[in-house]
Amino acid sequence: EESIMAQAKQQPAVLVLEDGRIFHGKALGAIGEAFGEVVFNTSMSGYQEIITDPSYCGQMVCMTYPQIGNYGINDADVESRKPFLSGFIVKECHPLPSNFRSQGNLAQYLKKYKVVGIEGIDTRALTRHLRDHGSKRAVISSKDLDTKRLLKKVQDSPVMEGQDLVQRVTCEKSYKWKTGRCDLQGKPLYKTKAQHKVVALDFGIKYNILRHLVDAGCQVEVMPATSAASDILAKKPDGVFLSNGPGDPEPVTYAIETIDKLVGSVPVFGICLGHQLLSLALGGNTSKLKFGHHGGNHPVMDLATSRVEITSQNHGFVVDVDSLKDKAKLTHVNLNDKTVEGISLSKENVFSVQYHPEASPGPHDSHYLFERFIQNMEKA
Fold first, then answer.
1. Most buried residue, 47, 76, 113, 196, by most Cβ within 10 Å?
2. Residue 326 CB neighbours (<10 A)
3. Burial class (CB within 10 angstroms; exposed 0-12, middle 13-18, buried 19+) of 21
4. For the whole prediction, is pTM greater than 0.85?
5. What is the rounded distance in angstroms from the CA atom of residue 300 to the CA atom of residue 322?
6. Percent of the chain with pLDDT over 70
7. What is the distance, to the nearest Å, from the Cα of residue 302 to the centroid of all Cα atoms in its chain?
8. Among all residues, which ones are annotated catalytic?
9. DSSP bridge pairs for 220
10. What residues have CB less than 8 Å from 10, skipping those under 6 apart?
11. Residue 137 — φ and ψ, nearest 5°?
12. Is the pLDDT of residue 9 over 90?
């Protein structure tokens, strides 16, 4: 009853895009004003994992599925220590979740972590607008509803390119990670003996990546993004993992320099931003996509086997395929737009993918990549 009453009393809210497009709706989560780049995510479920994915730092996520929040929120499905996204946009936020694992509702969760959101807008129209015109800076406000004033503020807000958002999400100091994946009752699914020492560089790492590494037989130590190559190699790791993370890879120069020193010294596996940073360290280039890839249904072909994987993706930048000629081998390609999805340097036991093999949310087609990392460490 409280949830329904709260929904009935919702304050008005407005979403204003930098090109002047305006959407009126109701406040969701925290009351206030939030700025960021609006992107759309096509996943039908997994909203909690999406909200807590640090790769969304600096962005507002519009869910294309119309009803969000119907199975609630729980402590087991978070992907980081807190939500880092700027705002959350849905057609309808369900006030009465129904699931045996639910510990609360979505609106309360967003409020607790001071995430400003909006609901009750035409998310289909917003998605089509972003597809036609590209990702846009925007403001969600439930505090100031003057659209002219808000438009001016949005146009003065920072663009995604050139910002180092990794500093906002990385851990402050190193820590050990010991838990693998669990069943719905919280019992470990696998009991794998740790045989390989792995340092994971945290550019905004998702917990499910760490769980997969543990399940694959890794003893994992997570280190801050700013860690020097000498400090990483001093740990005598069998392999180094480069994590996902938010925004533009080019300003993250300290990580590019570190990765350059690691390649050839130790096996390396990179995912998402880690893949882009590796590509830059090898002398490649990156550029911004029109509206990015965000969702759990992107087809990717493994060029070695011609096998197609349905993948989970979340990135707004992409590696330029021509810039890596003679520097790395192209291993995976996106079947929607032919963009780079994976590269390798087999002699150095180094490889990376643009998508998310750990899923969470998303399909499990790409789990084999963690085994490939293990095989590379054993080879080395």
1. 47
2. 6
3. middle
4. yes
5. 19
6. 98
7. 22
8. 272, 356, 358
9. 177, 198
10. 26, 27, 28, 119
11. -70, 150
12. no
